[in-house]
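Fold it.
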Amino acid sequence: MTTLSGTYHNGNLTLDRPFRTKKPVRVTIMFDEEEKTSLTLSDFSFTETQELLKDCETSFSDEVIEERRNAL
């Protein structure tokens, strides 16, 4: 099996490098989804964060400060 990469745009597939064959070959094409480039406010949930931290006995900010101190 040979793996090739390329770009699909407006109905055309352009391979990153040539592939030569003397007979027809079957292919499977997978489309990689584009990754998000940045987070938005809608990616966060205040209610979900409260639920995750409900059993925390210290403040979140204190935990972050302590984690950063320990990283040094």
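The chain has a mean pLDDT of 84.
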